């Protein structure tokens, strides 16, 4: 009954989305106020319907309803309740419903908080969002119905992939989808602007909070996924350049470019067509990520079920939305006349450089990720493109990006003097060189990590220099600077903090370049040394959990003969899935992670394979991402962004112009 | 600055950006593209010992041996990777992934020595036991031992005793 209700709600959602796609768009074309006004209630109704469907699916998982195929395939009665609930989106069908629910929530948010938007613009944005919903709902109902029944009921479910039975699953997909779907909203704004043929500062101001929010969520989602892989997979690494990781990085990179160029549209009314193009591509990359994950065309750790029909359907959706968007772009882009004129050395110029470099990196990652696909289709050769390619091709582009991102915020709009930027940054450069030489000496002449530390210091220092400059920290007394700091717009703080976050992550990555690893086979009582610590294997014991058994090692960590703590890595066995998982033991002091993994045991000799890592500054990688997202959140809280309308008179004038 | 000059500047910058991205991609491609080879491919054409590539197939049943290592030494594993027609011996120093199992699909990356031994630097077994890496499925098909339309692959233990299927029949 509940499953049928869910299925019905999903179908109802499709009908409402269809109406939402047609009525407001048509109304805006015909300047029919009543038809345009249907957008908001339809979006709210659609959101309610999809949320009901999602709730029904979640309920089926919670009570382990074995008459629902999706539950049977992905859940089990012995699973802890938390993982039953998070398992709702631990599979293709459920995660798709989550995706659509977030999209519907964004639509509802646009209709609830977008009262300040010009009526026609809001109607068109809601219409485009409805159109996207229609595609994905049709896809779900047609190829991936989560509510399909099975009769007679299965005795019990087949269980969830043990790797997904982790708190990481609760957080990683929802955050990532908030990011992906957020770009659907900026896409809708871009399409609406193309239909109207008008982009102005107000448009930039409305798009900015959405691109900021999407970017912040995507940053958190990617970082959480990376952290999850780090502690769950037990490989000791944090980024593998896996196709699906890349698929989440691509919209992040384009989103970063969009975030910056939208500021130029808002402040200077320049880069309009470019920003529209970025908004289209950002959503295209999100769709591409969805396609790559769900079609199984690329060899990845994330592969869902490989169903060619699903892959084709998503590819069709991708083509439809992108081809339509680009066609509209080709026809209408000429209508956007840039008014702001600027010199190459200026804040705008720096943002153009940022966009250029970020897009070049995107292109490199894009080609590397999809090359195996092309090589197979064109030449019939099976190749893979691994981390060495991505590292050697993208790092040379990251270097000028990090150099430039320090200078950009210190430049005024329109026209800047390089000499004054140099005056403000010379001491940061000195610190950067200092960091380089200190790291070089301390690490035993490892050049690349030292370069990484130098850039980390440069970027963090420049963020500080930016705030110091704005508060006149070194030019007046402290009290004065404090007053200025309080008066500084939150967006300025947000930008500086997000930039510093990049520096923190860079330091973490540089630190991981100095990570040490040791792989040994130990019997109980034997010990080994790594990074100045003595690691003694005391015992390996049996352990029993709700739906697993495990072998847990007790490793005592000693320094100079003193016992520091016991680390207990385990190797779990899930009988239902006949699968092992690795439970890593991590001890962190925020400056370094001590990381221990137990591998196989030799039954004959009782020796266990132990892998030990000393990961310098590893936590900084994710800490930096959290700081970036915090910066995004602070900018979002800026009054100028929050009160999204410049002023009501301007809107009335704009709406009048649209009608004229 | 006039609009024309500005456009020129932007075009120039774009050209530099696109050019450097292309150059970087191409040079990195040259050194870092990793080819996939099945055991039959290796038998047909011996790869150069300095070139690293990916070897994929099924882990031959009963072939996994763990070498006895002295305390503190790196543990070594030996196994054979088969596509039904041929099998290649592999050595690997490290912790095997959780899903590594005899009779299951595996992809290994490394170099093929002059002694006929593949030295793996990386062993990948995927997250899902029902998942077959596409390259491995392809290698098995080419070796003529498994038609995916006929369902799950036959048990690997019997593979080397199977007669190779006739090629060219059916599709």
Automatic annotation (TrEMBL), chain A:
Keywords: Cell inner membrane, Cell membrane, Cytochrome c-type biogenesis, Lyase, Membrane, Transmembrane, Transmembrane helix. It comes from the Bacteria. Its main location: membrane. Residues 315-639 form the Cytochrome c-type biogenesis protein CcmF C-terminal domain. The chain crosses the membrane at residues 6-28, 40-62, 96-114, 121-141, 175-195, 207-229, 249-266, 273-292, 312-331, 352-374, 394-413, 425-442, 448-468, 491-515, 617-637. The keyword Transferase does not apply. It is found in: Cell inner membrane. Residues 89-295 form the Cytochrome c assembly protein domain. It is a multi-pass membrane protein. GO terms for molecular function: lyase activity. Required for the biogenesis of c-type cytochromes. Possible subunit of a heme lyase. Belongs to the CcmF/CycK/Ccl1/NrfE/CcsA family. This is Heme lyase CcmF/NrfE family subunit.
TrEMBL record, chain B:
The keyword Transmembrane helix applies. Heme binds at residues 127, 131. It is a single-pass type II membrane protein. Its main location: membrane. Residues 29-171 are extracellular. Residues 145-171 are annotated as: Disordered. It is found in: Cell membrane. Transmembrane segments: none annotated. Keywords: Cell membrane, Cytochrome c-type biogenesis, Heme, Iron, Membrane, Metal-binding, Signal, Signal-anchor, Transmembrane, Transmembrane helix. Residues 1-23 form the signal peptide. It holds the Pfam family CcmE. Residues 1-7 are cytoplasmic. It comes from the Bacteria. Residues 158-171 have a biased composition (Polar residues). NCBIfam families: PRK13254.1-1, PRK13254.1-3, PRK13254.1-5. Heme chaperone required for the biogenesis of c-type cytochromes. Transiently binds heme delivered by CcmC and transfers the heme to apo-cytochromes in a process facilitated by CcmF and CcmH. Belongs to the CcmE/CycJ family. This is Cytochrome c-type biogenesis protein CcmE. It comes from Falsiroseomonas tokyonensis. The gene is ccmE.
């Amino acid at each position: 009954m509940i499953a049928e209700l869910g299925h019905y709600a999903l179908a109802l959602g499709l009908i409402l989305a269809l109406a939402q796609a047609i009525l407001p768009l048509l109304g805006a074309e015909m300047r029919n106020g009543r038809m345009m006004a249907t957008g908001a209630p339809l979006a709210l109704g659609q959101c309610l319907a999809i949320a009901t469907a999602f709730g029904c699916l979640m309920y089926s998982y919670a009570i382990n309803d074995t008459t629902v195929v999706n539950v049977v395939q992905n859940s089990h009665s012995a699973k802890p309740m938390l993982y039953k609930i998070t398992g709702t989106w631990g599979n293709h069908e459920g995660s798709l419903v989550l995706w659509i629910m977030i999209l519907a929530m964004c639509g509802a948010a646009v209709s609830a908080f977008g009262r300040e938007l010009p009526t026609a613009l809001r109607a068109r944005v809601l219409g485009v969002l409805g159109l996207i919903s229609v595609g994905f709902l049709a896809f779900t109902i047609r190829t991936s119905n989560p509510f399909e029944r099975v009769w007679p009921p299965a005795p019990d479910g087949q269980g969830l992939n043990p790797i997904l039975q982790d708190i990481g699953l609760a957080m990683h997909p929802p955050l990532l989808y908030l990011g992906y779907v957020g770009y659907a909203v900026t896409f809708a704004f871009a399409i609406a602007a193309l239909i109207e043929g008008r982009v102005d500062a107000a448009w930039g101001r409305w798009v900015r909070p959405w691109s900021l929010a999407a970017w912040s969520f995507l940053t958190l989602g990617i970082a959480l996924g990376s952290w999850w892989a780090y502690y769950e997979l037990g490989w000791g690494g944090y980024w593998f350049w896996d196709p699906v990781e890349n698929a989440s990085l691509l919209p992040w990179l384009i989103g970063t470019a969009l975030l910056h160029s939208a500021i130029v549209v808002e402040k200077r009314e320049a880069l309009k067509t470019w920003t529209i193009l970025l908004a289209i591509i950002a959503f295209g990359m999100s769709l591409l990520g969805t396609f790559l994950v769900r079609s199984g065309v690329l060899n990845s750790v994330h592969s869902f079920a490989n169903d060619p029909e699903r892959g084709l359907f998503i590819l069709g959706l991708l083509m439809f939305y992108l081809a339509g968007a680009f066609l509209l772009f080709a026809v209408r882009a000429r209508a956007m006349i840039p008014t702001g004129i600027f010199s190459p050395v200026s804040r705008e110029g720096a943002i153009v450089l940022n966009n250029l470099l970020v897009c070049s990196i995107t292109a490199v990652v894009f080609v590397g990720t999809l090359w195996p696909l092309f090589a197979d289709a064109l030449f019939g050769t099976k190749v893979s493109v691994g981390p060495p390619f991505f590292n050697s091709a993208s790092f040379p582009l990251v270097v000028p990006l990090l150099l430039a991102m320090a200078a950009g915020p210190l430049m005024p709009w329109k026209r800047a003097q390089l000499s004054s930027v140099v005056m403000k940054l010379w001491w940061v450069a000195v610190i950067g060189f200092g960091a380089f030489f200190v790291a070089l000496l301390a690490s035993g002449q490892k050049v690349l990590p030292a370069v990484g530390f130098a850039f980390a210091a440069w970027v963090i220092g420049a963020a500080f220099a930016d705030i110091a400059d704005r508060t006149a920290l070194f030019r007046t007394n402290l009290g004065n600077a404090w007053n200025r700091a309080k008066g500084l717009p939150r967006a300025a703080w947000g930008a500086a903090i997000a930039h510093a976050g990049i520096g923190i992550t860079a330091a973490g990555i540089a630190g991981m370049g100095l990570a040490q690893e040791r792989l040994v086979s130990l019997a109980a009582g034997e010990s080994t040394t790594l990074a100045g610590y003595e690691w003694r294997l005391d015992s390996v014991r049996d352990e029993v959990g709700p739906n697993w058994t495990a072998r847990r090692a007790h490793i005592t960590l000693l320094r100079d003969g003193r016992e520091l703590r016991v680390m207990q890595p385990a190797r779990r066995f899930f009988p239902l899935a006949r699968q092992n998982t690795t439970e890593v033991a991590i001890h962190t002091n925020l400056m370094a992670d001590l990381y221990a993994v137990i591998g196989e045991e030799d039954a004959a000799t009782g020796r266990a394979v132990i892998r030990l890592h000393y990961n310098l500054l590893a936590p900084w990688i994710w800490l930096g991402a959290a700081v970036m997202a915090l910066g995004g959140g602070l900018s979002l809280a800026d009054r100028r962004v929050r009160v999204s309308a410049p002023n009501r008179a301007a809107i009335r004038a704009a709406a009048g112009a649209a009608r004229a | 600055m006039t609009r024309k000059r500005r456009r020129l500047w932007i075009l120039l910058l774009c050209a530099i950006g696109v050019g450097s991205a292309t150059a970087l991609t191409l040079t990195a491609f040259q050194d870092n593209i990793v080819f996939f080879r099945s055991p039959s491919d290796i038998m047909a054409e011996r790869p150069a010992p300095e070139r690293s590539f990916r070897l994929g197939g099924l882990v031959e049943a009963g072939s996994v041996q763990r070498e006895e290592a002295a305390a503190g030494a790196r543990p070594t594993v030996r196994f054979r990777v088969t596509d039904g027609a041929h099998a290649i011996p592999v050595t690997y120093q490290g912790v095997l992934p959780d899903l590594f199992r005899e009779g299951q699909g595996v992809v290994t990356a490394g170099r093929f020595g002059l002694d006929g031994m593949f030295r793996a630097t990386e062993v990948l077994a995927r997250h899902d036991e029902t998942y077959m890496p596409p390259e491995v499925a392809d290698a098995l098909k080419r070796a003529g031992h498994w038609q995916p339309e006929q369902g799950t692959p036959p048990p690997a233990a019997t593979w080397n005793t199977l007669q190779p299927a006739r090629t060219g029949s059916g599709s």
